[in-house]
Amino acid sequence: MGEYNPYRTAPDQSARRNSSGMPAGLFAALVVTLLALLGVGTRYYFYGDLNVIHCLLSLFFSINLLICYWEACLFLKRDYIETRTEYWHRRQRETRRTPAVEFLSTKVPLKQIWSPTLWADVWATYSLFDGSFSDRRTFGFNGDIANGFATPVPTLVLYAAYTVDFLSAVVAGILGVMIFWQWTYVTSVYWVSFFVAKRQCHITRGELYTYIGAMNAPWVLFPLLGLYVSVRLLLDGNYSVLGY
After folding, report:
1. Would you list the domain boundaries of the chain?
2. Spatial contact of 101 and 88, defined as CB atoms under 8 Å apart
3. Looking at the DSSP assignment, which residues form a beta bridge with residue 22?
């Protein structure tokens, strides 16, 4: 794939073959993997064991931290995203390719790898499945911005507490109930708003299941597990639910 250029209109095929850098999707996967392994490895270093629930929630916390950065980019580059969405509409008509796949497979120079302009394309390509992310008046747009700015600190606190139990189990349980319920509720309302607005009429069934269903499901399924863990922390008064 070609080197990333946010202002391109038609990528040069020879440049795509010869460019250097890392595919955007691969970089995102590596960030999530390293963040998750940090928690799992720290627990193993201090306690010499692994716990399935801790591993799953470590993975979720890591995904959410990356998404929070993307959601900050959504706010910071909101004007650019509206313009960029039109580019990807044209690009899709020209190539018949899925813009999200094309963007994630495009090689990005390492000096640009944390650029908000780069990751704004996450939302520009996603807007082809749900136009609310290029419309700042919608629930989806504002709900994601709220997650991006409100949840990084609670995410880090719970990640650390579940890994090295530095926090009272009751306090961790209270914080967990608050944040995990918020994720479950907001994502559920997002799904409802999507169907109420009849946005499903503008995409294929496969796109609906993949990009609207599967890609948002972690913010319901993992938080439901987190709610169970949080209630157990409150009732037990200890971290036994996580194997401590």
Report:
1. 13-242
2. no
3. 108
Is residue 4 within 8 Å of 24, Cβ to Cβ?
A: yes
Cα angle value 40/38/29 (rounded, 5°): 105
Given its phi and psi angles, is residue 107 left (phi above 0), alpha (psi -120 to 50 degrees) or beta? beta
Place of tokens 């796109």: 207
Measured distance CA(223)–CA(181) in Å, rounded: 7
Sign of CA dihedral 148, 153, 158, 163: positive
Q: How many CB atoms lie within 10 A of CB 235?
A: 12
Inter-residue contact 36 to 54 (CB < 8 Å):
no
pTM: 0.90
pLDDT in tens, 157-202: 999 999 999 999 999 999 999 999 999 999 999 999 999 999 999 9
